[in-house]
Amino acid sequence: MEISARQPLPATKKNHPAGGVRTADPFFRMLVMATGIGVLVVLGAIIGVMAVGGWKAFAVFGPEFLISAVWNPVTQHFGAAAPVFGTIVSSAMALVVAVPLAFGTAFWLAALAPPAAAAFIGMAVQLLAAVPSIIFGMWGFFVVVPLVAHYVQPTARHLFGHVPGLSALVAGAPFGTGLFTASLILAIMITPSITAVMRDVFVSMPTVLRESAYGLGATRWEVMRNVVLPWSRQGVIGAVVLGMGRAMGETMAVTFVIGDSNHIGWSLFAPANTIASLIALEFPESAAGSLKLASLMALGAILMAISFLTLWFSRWLLARGQKAAGD
Amino acid sequence: MATSRSLLRSDRSASLLLRRKITDRMATGLSWLAMLIVVCVLGSILWTLVKNGLAGLSINLFTHSMAAPGQNGGLANAIMGSLLQTGLAILLGTPAGLLTGIYLAEYGANNVLARTVRFVSDMLLSAPSILIGLFIYMVLVAPLGHFSGYAGSLALAILAMPIVVRTTEDMLYLVPVAMREAGIALGAPKWRVILFICLRAARGGILTGVLLAVARVAGETAPLLFTSLGNSEWSVDMNRPMASLPVAIYQYAGSAYQDWMQQAWTGALLVTLGVLVINIVVRVGTRGGRT
């Protein structure tokens, strides 16, 4: 989406041809600049507030806060490992589902679709991105959870339940809520944005490259596999990382289907928590100034740091991809 | 000998061609499958909402406030609260977004400050929305000692602003340099050129951005949980806790009461229809332009 053709601005020097001192111009310049700096201040304040609010948790538990899997409000013992584990595992599993879906859809939109259908389906994909996350949560809870409880997990247990090494992955009672369901919902939620970026990257490729491959007799898949993908590799990875960043911060949809359990285990179907869902569920029950609140803020700071790094990485990749495209 | 060898070779190339064709067909088929899955999911969501939500659509829903189960309540206060908070959020977020967008497009060129602002704005665009709510709780709700509609609006404004920044910047780049030059040649100062020529030329696109921001924040739940909290009574006082449609849906959807569940579905249908209609209008109106 970055505009590649930065137009040069017309030179307006302070000594304007009309002459005279213009006070409004510097004022306006200051105003827009101050607003821009205000944006920096907002993000700085968010990070600062999280860090200060969470400081107490680090002060009390020390570095152990990061690796402790205990989350026990009764004994006042809190650790970040379980929700961090849930966040990373659910996002990673979401990517496993979302990347093929998004890639297939982007390939369809960029290479296979009849023009009229491409516009229509492209819009449908964008509409899916616009659906509020609480709706995904409700849909997930009332439609996907029963499917997972009645069909997916029993089938998975039937198939892998007796395979050594795999049985642990499908263990547990089939509640329907848990990591697997949350990952499915997350995958659906991030597929549209990954698709959009991938499609942009595919379409932005110089037509002459694609046409010369077709001219040599390559099939559509071969053009995608051997010409488009190598050319747009960085942009595609950037899109995937961007999707992962979104998945990690998602709250409402996950809160409905994750099962609310602070437990680290092997089972993909076990109830769990992500940082965001834990904050949404437990924050209303934590008193101001309590250790629990500080621990939740510290988790918020960790989530902020993780999503900051992810987004940074994805933008770096996308920008590099674009630079390569410009050459 | 020579003929048999060439025969063999053509045989081999035929099988290679066949294999390439099969691979291509398989990739094409899987690609169709992926597209169909995505479309079916959207269809399933819409169908679930219509199937469960349509039954609860009545005048009562818009004229009564939330009430205890079995008391024949509606969602009037939640709808009003959503309108007020979204409206105020857009009123706060749009000017800030516009000015920042102007700074990035017209003054920033490519200096370090502008690059940082652009990056940070994009960060805010995809920052976890629950953290924005947590932030407003810490800086506004906790010091003042009470939840309020203002706090909710402010949290939503932080989410709306980056969308306006991005569209404003993108749209200003599309304004032809010749138009700026014409304005400057007529002796207009730069701020007038920007406000009355560039912004006016780009207003369609910027309006698109504002509408997308409305659609985005109208469905947000997480930032409101700790800021405006929710309120089961009719209230238009933004200095007090305020109901909103998404939060009401969240409260009702987790309940065990038949009529609350029904209202949750109907509320969900309303929110989704509103958000999707705005999106469709924007996207059809801008003819394939995407943000």
From TrEMBL, chain B:
Q: Is Protein biosynthesis given among the entry's keywords? A: no
Which GO annotations describe the biological process of this protein? phosphate ion transmembrane transport
As one GO molecular function, the record gives:
phosphate transmembrane transporter activity
Question: According to Swiss-Prot or TrEMBL, what is its membrane topology?
Answer: Multi-pass membrane protein
Q: Which GO terms describe its cellular component?
A: plasma membrane
Subcellular location field:
Cell inner membrane; Cell membrane
Q: Kindly state which keywords UniProt assigns to this record, in alphabetical order.
A: Cell membrane, Membrane, Phosphate transport, Transmembrane, Transmembrane helix, Transport
Under Gene3D superfamilies, the record lists:
MetI-like
Does Electron transport show up as a keyword for this record? no
| InterPro entries (UniProt xref) | MetI-like, MetI-like_sf, Phosphate_PstA, Phosphate_transprt_permease
Write down a Pfam family by its short name: BPD_transp_1
Query: Which residue ranges run through the membrane?
Result: 29-50, 83-105, 117-141, 147-165, 193-215, 264-282
Q: Which domain of life is it from?
A: Bacteria
Q: Which residues form the ABC transmembrane type-1 domain?
A: 79-282
- Please report which protein family the annotation says this sequence is part of: Belongs to the binding-protein-dependent transport system permease family. CysTW subfamily.
* Protein known as: Phosphate transport system permease protein PstA
The lineage, from the top, is: Bacteria, Pseudomonadati, Pseudomonadota, Alphaproteobacteria, Acetobacterales
The gene name on file is pstA
